[in-house]
Design brief:
The structure is a single chain. It contains 10 helices and 8 strands. With 256 residues, it is an alpha+beta fold. It has one domain. Strands 1, 2, 3, 4, 5 and 8 form a 6-stranded mixed sheet that branches. A hairpin with a 6-residue loop joins strand 1 and strand 2. Helix 6 packs across helix 10. The protein is globular. The two termini are 17 Å apart.
Length: 256
């Protein structure tokens, strides 16, 4: 499989809004305690949002970053922020002269583009959901379909994707693994009865919108003994993704 080469067209940084109808936000994720407060454009984790705020201020770039995914605690009437997103922009405000002005500090969602195939959840389930990016230099749906027309060993697929996308594929896996860890942290809060999360049937949308918003990470550090900071430190070097790939290569997991 040939190695992907970025042509610096800037298309991935333009018109970052999703096709979702804006009126469908805010809303709960289906059958979930996750509440999506704002329409996502470029979503990011808290530490990424803090870095982007700082870079925007230093470079005098007008940017608005807002809470995206929340969990609302009915006991304290407080929302825990899981993810943020850039407020709706046609083009990324950090795109200057058709180049990313924060390339080395860009969020994981930007780093993994255009890698979309072989997510953690797909690999664990043994399925392949072909997601074609807008990148004109990446494989088409037909090309991916041809590649996957015969059963492919998970190990082989991971090796091919790593070969094609390099660190971008690692960034995709790292982001997936961070989200999985965040989900586990929230489950811990629920199971230990530290929070009583709202669901769609509670009809508390207005309460959630107007609630006090706090950082999930800060809440975890204050109220639990979870080793949050160590996990986040390791994610900076994509350590979890590298370990995940190593384990798949060693296990020689089955066909997809």
């Amino acid at each position: 499989m040939s190695k992907f080469e970025c042509k610096s067209c800037g298309l991935c940084c333009k018109d970052s809004s999703l096709n979702d109808d804006k009126s469908s936000y805010p809303r709960f994720s289906p059958n979930s305690i996750i509440f999506n407060l704002n329409k996502p454009t470029i979503s990011m984790f808290e530490w990424e949002a803090r870095k982007l705020f700082k870079l925007a201020k230093e470079n005098k770039i007008n940017v608005k970053i807002v809470p995206y995914k929340l969990v609302y605690d009915k006991k304290t009437r407080t929302s825990l922020i899981l993810q943020y997103t850039l407020a709706e922009h046609k083009d990324c405000p950090f795109l200057i002269d058709n180049k990313c002005s924060i390339y080395n500090d860009r969020p994981l969602i930007c780093k993994f583009f255009p890698a979309n195939l072989g997510s953690v959840s797909d690999l664990m389930k043994g399925v392949n959901n072909i997601k074609v990016s807008v990148c004109p230099n990446d494989f088409t749906f037909e090309q991916w379909s041809e590649f996957l027309s015969e059963k492919v060993k998970t190990k082989e697929l991971v090796e091919k994707l790593e070969q094609r996308y390099g660190e971008s594929y690692l960034a995709l896996l790292e982001r997936d693994l961070i989200m999985k860890e965040i989900t586990d942290w929230v489950k811990h809060l629920v199971n230990t009865k530290l929070i009583d999360p709202a669901t769609e049937k509670d009809n508390l949308v207005n309460d959630i919108i107007n609630s006090k918003k706090v950082s999930l990470i800060e809440y975890l550090i204050r109220h639990t003994g979870l080793n949050v900071l160590s996990f986040l430190y390791e994610s900076g070097s994509l350590l979890h993704a590298k370990t995940f790939i190593e384990n798949i290569k060693k296990s020689g997991a089955g066909e997809i």
